[in-house]
Write a structure and sequence with these properties.
This is (4-O-methyl)-D-glucuronate--lignin esterase. By secondary structure, the chain is an alpha/beta fold.
Length: about 400
C-alpha cells in the first residue's frame, strides 16, 4: 500500500487488505508519498548479528541515495512496531514564544493539553538564535550564544517505574492505553515545541538550528527525539547506554560474557520508556527484532549526531562503541560521515561531562547550530579500542550513488 494523505483515500483501502501497517506521523507520510512502507505482514528476523540497514523488507538492495528515504521509513516503522509505539500525527497546535518560555497547547478529538518549556536566551539576543532542547535540563555546557529550552519530559510522560505507563499529559490527550512508550511521548512533545517555534512570527528561535540533548534515561529520550523529527539539526544523546546508543544484541552477548550490563529484558521490567509492544521481544526474542540501535543512528542520518558515552559497565561501553561504529557506516554510505561522531571516555561520573569530550561537542555545536565552517570529521573516540563494527555484522556497506 502506498501512503496516502487524506483519510478518504485511507478509507478507500480494500476491506480485505492485510492488517494496516504501523502508523507513522503525517509529516513522515507526506515526505515519503511514493514509499510502499513496511509490509503489514513483516514480522521477525532471526539474527544474532545486527540487521542490514541496506536491504529492504522485501529484499531489495539499497544502492542509491534516492532509495534511502523509503528504507528509512521502513526502519522508522519497525522502531514503532517493535520498540517505541506510534507517534501520533501533529494535532492542532497553538502557542507562544517569549524570551523566557515557550507555551504549547495541543488539541485533538475534543481534548486539549497545555505545557510549557522554559527558555534561556543568549543575553541581548533578539533572534533568530539557535537553541538546544534539554530534557530535564542540560548535563553538558551549552554555549552562551545558543538558547537553552528546558523540556519537562516527565510532565509529558512519567518515568518512575513500570507503573508510570500511560501517565502524563500525552496520555491525557491520547488515552492511557496509547501504544507510545514514554520516549515516543516525549519526542511528540519536542515536535510540538518545534511546531510553535516554526509558527512564531517574532522568530526568536531559528527552527532550522535546533538541537536536542539529555543524559542517561533522558539521553535515550533525546536520541529518540532526534530520530523521530527530521527538523532537529543536531542530536546530542549523553550517556544513553542501553535503550540509546547500545545495541540490544551486543548488550546480550556482553551480558552472556558476564558483564554487569543493562539488557532489553531488564529494561522493560524497569520503566515505561518503551511501548508495551517491546515486552515480548525484549524478554524472549531480541534476535528477532528487525532493528537494532545502529539503525536509530541511521534514522538521524544525515543530520548532525554526536553520541557522548561513558565507560560505565551498566551503559555497555563495548555495546555502545560497537553499535555506534556500525551506525557510523550508515552515515558513511550516505556520504555524510562527518555529520556523525562517537565519543566514549572513562574516568568521570555518570552525567558529569568531562573536559576530554569538550572539543568534539564544541565542534558539533559550531557546525550544526552556529553554522561555522569547522571540521567534525573523524570523531571516533573510545577506550574500547579493539571493538569494531565488523564483529557484529555480516553485510557490507555500500557507497550509495
Ligand atoms: C542510563 O540510563 C538509566 C539506566 O538505563 C537505568 O537502568 C538506571 O536506572 O538509570 C539510568 C539513569 O537514567 O540514570 C540517571
Amino acid at each position: 500500500m502506498k501512503y496516502a494523505f487524506s483519510s478518504t483515500l485511507l478509507l478507500a483501502t480494500p476491506l480485505l487488505a492485510a492488517p494496516s501497517p504501523v502508523v507513522v506521523d503525517l509529516a513522515e507520510r507526506q515526505a515519503n508519498t511514493t514509499c510502499a512502507g513496511l509490509p503489514a505482514t513483516y514480522s521477525a528476523v532471526s539474527s544474532a548479528k545486527l540487521p542490514d540497514p541496506f536491504t529492504s523488507a522485501s529484499g531489495e538492495k539499497i544502492t542509491t541515495k534516492a532509495q534511502w528515504p523509503c528504507r528509512r521509513l521502513e526502519i522508522l516503522q519497525m522502531f514503532y512496531k517493535y520498540e517505541l509505539g506510534d507517534k501520533p500525527d501533529k494535532p492542532t497546535v497553538t502557542g507562544t514564544v517569549s524570551s523566557t518560555s515557550i507555551s504549547v497547547t495541543a488539541s485533538t478529538g475534543g481534548k486539549s493539553i497545555s505545557f510549557s518549556a522554559s527558555v534561556r536566551m543568549p543575553s541581548g539576543a533578539t533572534g533568530p538564535v539557535p537553541a538546544i532542547i534539554a530534557y530535564g535540563g542540560a548535563s553538558l555546557g551549552i554555549p552562551s550564544n545558543v538558547a537553552t529550552i528546558t523540556f519537562n519530559n516527565d510532565d509529558m510522560a512519567q518515568q518512575t517505574n513500570t507503573g508510570s505507563r500511560g501517565k502524563g499529559k500525552f496520555y491525557d490527550l491520547y488515552g492511557s492505553s496509547h501504544s507510545a512508550g514514554a520516549m515516543t511521548a516525549w519526542a511528540w512533545g519536542v515536535s510540538r515545541i518545534i511546531d510553535v517555534i516554526e509558527a512564531d512570527t517574532s522568530k526568536k528561535i531559528d527552527a532550522k538550528r535546533i538541537g536536542v540533548t539529555g543524559c542517561s534515561r533522558n539521553g535515550k529520550g533525546a536520541f529518540v527525539a532526534g530520530a523521530l523529527d527530521e527538523r532537529i539539526a543536531l542530536t546530542l544523546p549523553q550517556e544513553s547506554g542501553s535503550g540509546g546508543a547500545a545495541c540490544w544484541r551486543i548488550s546480550d552477548s556482553e551480558h552472556s560474557a558476564g558483564k554487569n550490563i543493562q539488557t532489553a529484558s531488564e529494561i522493560v521490567g524497569e520503566n515505561a520508556w518503551f511501548s508495551s509492544r517491546f515486552d515480548t521481544w525484549a524478554k524472549s526474542n531480541v534476535n528477532g527484532l528487525g532493528v537494532d540501535h545502529h539503525m536509530l543512528a541511521g534514522l538521524v542520518a544525515p543530520r548532525g549526531l554526536l553520541v557522548i558515552e561513558n565507560n560505565i559497565d551498566w551503559l555497555g561501553p563495548v555495546s555502545t562503541t560497537g553499535c555506534m561504529r556500525t551506525g557510523a557506516l550508515i552515515y558513511q554510505a550516505l556520504g555524510a560521515a562527518d555529520s556523525f561522531g562517537f565519543s566514549e571516555t572513562p574516568g568521570h561520573n555518570h552525567c558529569q561531562f568531562p573536559s576530554s569530550q569538550q572539543a568534539e561537542l564544541t565542534a558539533f555545536i559550531n557546525k550544526f547550530l552556529l553554522g561555522r565552517s569547522v571540521s567534525t570529521a573523524g570523531v571516533d573516540k573510545s577506550d574500547q579500542t579493539s571493538v569494531k563494527a565488523s564483529s557484529y555484522i555480516t553485510w557490507t556497506t555500500p557507497t550509495l550513488t
